[in-house]
Amino acid sequence: MLQFRNLLMSVAAGFAATISVLAVMQERQDTSLLKYAVLTAISICFFFAFLTFRRGVTHAILERRYILAGITILSVFTLISLIDWPLFLNRPWYETVIVDFISLAAIFCFFSFIAFLLLRGGYVWQRSEISKWTIVWYMLPMIFVWMFYLLAFFPGNMSPDSLNHWRQVENMEFNNWHPFAYTMVILALTQIWDSPAVIVIFQMLLLSFVYAYGLYSFRQYGLGKKIAWAAAILWAVLPINGIFSTILWKDVVYSTFIVFLTIFVMKTVLQEGKNLRTWSGIATFTVVLLGIAFFRNNGLPIAIMTAIGMLIAYRRIWKQLLTPLVLVSALYVIVTGPVFTAYNIQSANPNESMSIPTQQIAAVVSQDGELTEEQLAYLDSILPINDWNAYNPYLTDRIKFHDNFHDEVIVEDMGNYLSVWFDIVKQNPALVTEAYLKQTSLVWQINKPVDGYTNPYTIDVDPNEMGLETKPVSQTLYDGVEYLLETSRYHTEELFWRPAVFSIFIIFFTLIASRKLGAVAWLPILPVLFNTATIFVGLPAQDYRYLVSNAMVSIFFLLFASLYKKGKEPAYGVHAARK
């Protein structure tokens, strides 16, 4: 009788939650019946499980008030991230209250139930011996699946940025507008095989090795064999990994180093800092920091801030940690300074970091905001005033690559540009805030704005004068993989192709890990946190690649939350899982 009652309540809650959440996100006519059906079925199953374990769920989230507070904050933010804002503003207030309240309750129940599952069990944090050959075994399914992507899009996918690197190698004329380090990787590898495919194979091997190394490291500290294999297979079949491994972007290598650094910090926590007392550990830490610093132009502050965070957390061994911090900083200054000068390697345009101020100024000009005559004259010297109307709220290219845009005015006196921008911000707070939220929507918004876009990946080789073109091994395979990607994008864009959902889960899993492993469990979030922060202040476009590292690393945070420390055993008399 109780089960039947739970089932009836689950059906009612499932229908209500599905209708409300989808109503928050989009117009009814824009939602397919398939999406309604699938989400309803999932919701009914979820609420049935929730009601079955409701007492345990209640106990789990009330056991520690900061868990309850964290879940509440994340639930509110998730709701905000899902909202279609024009729809929200135009809907009758009473409908908004009902729909948003039911959606918020459903989201809160979801987070609470996942927290309950993670807090009630897991794997004990203890050292065990695992063969290093395990790394190779975990790599195999990933390489096997990803090779189908390479065969479909042979010799690899290349955007204009990719072609810029390739052109530098062909002409032997280098610059750092797109990271010089990635160009050098292309130069070195093409000595082996003069084809983009060799870069793709390198990226596949690097990414699969880092994933497999992470699983091996977790196995060393208690993670079960079955869940490790499940993670390896999941990484293999996720379209995100398959397609990104075949794209010649520096972001792929950079993101792999972000994942590697996160794993290293997690391993440091699990080893209680012992790996930082060895030269091999310090050497690994240094190499990973160098990879982050050199493979994207915003990488240095992420490397430095993460190293400082580690130094603070493990200040008793500050001398060992000072070595990579000083070495990475010194090498970066030497390479990008004297070395670039000596070999006439042009540094990145400083104006590239001005995406947000430029977008905010363009928003004010194009929407007839408050501007003084002096400000108008100065902005006109950069771009004729009428041309500022080319403004797109989600893309800086319409302005910074405009034929009449004089970026030298900005570069020659960056201080004056920032001063004018600051004054314009003070004069037009509403307009610049709206412009900022739209430009950074990729970072914080799960639901794609109705007037916005997401550029999730690129396929094929862009037209070029170098004779590079897509030559699939099989047209049938090409069509099949392309259909898989487009289907995934159409039906699961909010889940897989907007990075905000992964950022939310990373914070959530870290919250749970801090309950099971202690406050030091917050340390591994630093690389993701600092990387996201740099994107928040300089995002030029809605390109998924800027935050694809959040998707790549998110499962490791789930695995991290699956471990527990002795003295913080699972509650409620439920035994932890065995290996």
Automatic annotation (TrEMBL):
Pfam family name, one: DUF6020
Keyword terms: Membrane, Transmembrane, Transmembrane helix
InterPro entries referenced in this protein's UniProt entry, alphabetically: DUF6020
Domain of life: Bacteria
Protein's UniProt name: Dolichyl-phosphate-mannose-protein mannosyltransferase
Spans traversing the lipid bilayer: 33-54, 66-89, 101-123, 135-154, 197-216, 228-247, 253-270, 277-295, 301-318, 325-345, 495-513, 520-540, 546-564
Signal sequence, start to end: none
Claim: Cell cycle is one of the keywords in the record: no
